[in-house]
Design goal:
Helices cover about 45% and strands about 0% of the residues. With about 120 residues, the chain is mostly helical. The protein contains five helices and no strands. It is globular and about 50 Å long.
Length: about 120
């Protein structure tokens, strides 16, 4: 299994803002994120990955800390488009209903029908 950090390598070489030094400071890690194992990254309080229950738990921790919005960084590195789309679908199926129970979330794929034009 490839390290999660390897997926981010193309983004981290652009300039110092995206350097491992920047991430090390933001994540308060005593190592380069590229050297961290998947398990170490997953356990970090600022990295939200996992199955729906694990992600909900992390997001609830953010909510308890006073955060009301998050940005999902899905298109990182070499992640295939199909995987990104599946992840977005899971967000709609599991996370949105959990955090917005009063809203109805579409669970079916939209059906596009040509109207003859």
């Amino acid at each position: 299994m490839a390290l999660v950090a390897a997926l981010f390598e193309p983004l981290l070489v652009k300039n110092k803002l995206y350097s491992y030094e920047y991430l090390r400071n933001v994540f308060a890690m005593n190592m380069d994120p590229k050297d961290a194992s998947d398990a170490e990254l997953k356990e970090h309080h600022m990295v939200v990955v996992g199955n729906p229950d694990e992600v909900i738990q992390k997001l609830e921790n953010f909510q308890k800390a006073g955060l009301s919005q998050v940005i999902c960084f899905k298109q990182a590195g070499r992640i295939p488009h199909a995987n990104i789309m599946q992840s977005i679908k899971r967000i709609g199926k599991y996370l949105l209903p959990h955090f917005n129970p009063h809203r109805v979330v579409a669970t079916e794929e939209p059906l596009f029908v040509a109207n003859g034009r």
